């Protein structure tokens, strides 16, 4: 089993990623090519542009992953690739690459669900983590609470009815004039450390809905109004602003983060209670997806799970944001369960789609 060596390819959104992982969980290589520069310049992901960016770098990213692992394609056991959810134009770049490699070297191909991979990568870093477990998956596009019964079998306890928390972090960063060269979340988290989290009274979303769903569109609007009423001009970047301006921006960042996370805490508490009724043996809450890199979120959710004597499992930040390791690892789990396809024909018609 440890002899398995799987290449994982991820192109569902704005990062082109590849990694090679061994059956025992050893990460042999990990490469991510980010479109962050493009995003900062154009203020968001445009599918056609993202597709071109993936196409330009995909061969190199996979080659780098092989080189860093000192392997050739011949030494691989299988190729795993994200098939969704995501931008279809972008997904196709990864799928076609995976099929070319698998076809040329006669390798099985494993289709991976992006959100399942965000959850299962926690099993690579925490060997004690057994099914069933509860998972909170938080990223730019998703906000999910799922009960993982076993591989490929999940119950969705809650999702967002509008925006995901990462989207709210990104817009808050933009409106506050923070440095968007990386994603907005880390910039907000950093500035929030200087602010007073009680200074701006944002209301917690969906208090009256006693379920596990999320909503971040209203909080986004509250932030926008708070910024407008303080006459903060996002076109004047934070670095140039007067100290007074900086402190009121920090107050907004801190107050936003506190309420955004209170919403997560409340939903997680309810989800733990629901989950324990369905699967009384759960021992872990997995928190993964890009937003799970946030240290404040980790510490607050750690307190929530302690009340129920559960353990929080949070992958390191480079495995929380989109990456190839989680795809390779989920590929390994599926491969072991016999869930893979035979090698595609070398003259793959998909290549000419
Ligand atoms: O999982 P991911 O890399 O891509 C998606 O599938 O969306 O998540 C990206 C999201 C972005 O919205 C980014 O701002 C957010 O994760 N993020 C953070 C932090 N690091 C990344 N949000 C809050 N605090 C952070 N430290
Ligand atoms: Zn993701």
TrEMBL record:
Record's function text: Required for the formation of a threonylcarbamoyl group on adenosine at position 37 (t(6)A37) in mitochondrial tRNAs that read codons beginning with adenine. Probably involved in the transfer of the threonylcarbamoyl moiety of threonylcarbamoyl-AMP (TC-AMP) to the N6 group of A37. Involved in mitochondrial genome maintenance.
Protein name: Glycoprotease 1
GO molecular function: metal ion binding; tRNA N(6)-L-threonylcarbamoyladenine synthase activity
Source organism of this protein record: Gossypium tomentosum (Hawaiian cotton)
Keywords, sorted A to Z: Acyltransferase, Metal-binding, Mitochondrion, Transferase, Transit peptide, tRNA processing
One BP annotation, GO: tRNA threonylcarbamoyladenosine modification
Subunit structure: Homodimer.
Cofactor detail note: Binds 1 divalent metal cation per subunit.
Gcp-like domain span: 26-329
Cofactors that this protein relies on: a divalent metal cation
Reactions catalysed: L-threonylcarbamoyladenylate + adenosine(37) in tRNA = N(6)-L-threonylcarbamoyladenosine(37) in tRNA + AMP + H(+)
One GO term describing the cellular component: mitochondrion
Family in the record: Belongs to the KAE1 / TsaD family.
